[in-house]
Amino acid sequence: MDIEAVEWAVVESGIGPLFLAATGRGLVRVGFHAEAVRREGTPERLAARLGAEPVECASGLLAEPIRRLGRYFVGDPDGLDLPLDWSLTAGFNRQVLRELATGVPYGTVVGYGELARRVGQPGAAQAVGAAMGSNPLPVVVPCHRVVESDGGLGGFGGGLETKRRLLALEGVLPAPLF
């Protein structure tokens, strides 16, 4: 797959620095904990997957995603309605992530099993968990809203404290005391 342009930037957020990348189709990658050491090599890995060399730039393709993420982190429930480029996911994972993006609104949660049922695979709760772990667009495709059926938080690629903070921001959990 050839993409004409890929831009990337690191932006501060309510949960720490985020690595963002976008193509002409939309936001393609969000990465947590994007301190310099952790993001080392990320643009090169992205280039290998997308077939285009990413350019560091916080305007152009990323201007609107950065603005919308800023709105989200101050509590705007509509802040993350963005064009997305699904190039970094396929098959069952893409099906699950698309359902999550469109069918689990701000301030709500869904169980792994329920999400599996919604995509026509009622026995695939563990596979849904794997799809969440491979989500290239966390926060925007809200894998933090997927929880265990018994009310447990489940796992989270950004760490459970980050998941708690996102759910508190959306009013699902009480705000942390710090």
Describe the structure.
- By secondary structure, the protein is α/β, with parallel strands linked by helices.
- The chain contains seven helices and six strands; from the N terminus they run βββααβααβααβα.
- It has helices at 36-39, 42-50, 63-72, 91-103, 112-118, 125-133, 160-169; strands at residues 6-11, 18-23, 26-31, 55-56, 110-111, 146-147.
- It has a four-stranded mixed β-sheet with strand order 3-2-1-4, covered by helices on one side. A two-stranded parallel sheet has the order 5-6.
- Helix 4 (91-103) crosses helix 6 (125-133) and helix 5 crosses helix 6.
- The model has no long low-confidence stretch (mean pLDDT 91).
Low-confidence stretches: none
Order of helices and strands: EEEHHEHHEHHEH
What does the overall shape look like?
A: globular
Helical run tally: 7
Descriptive labels:
single chain; 178 residues; alpha/beta; four-stranded mixed β-sheet; two-stranded parallel sheet; 7 helices; globular
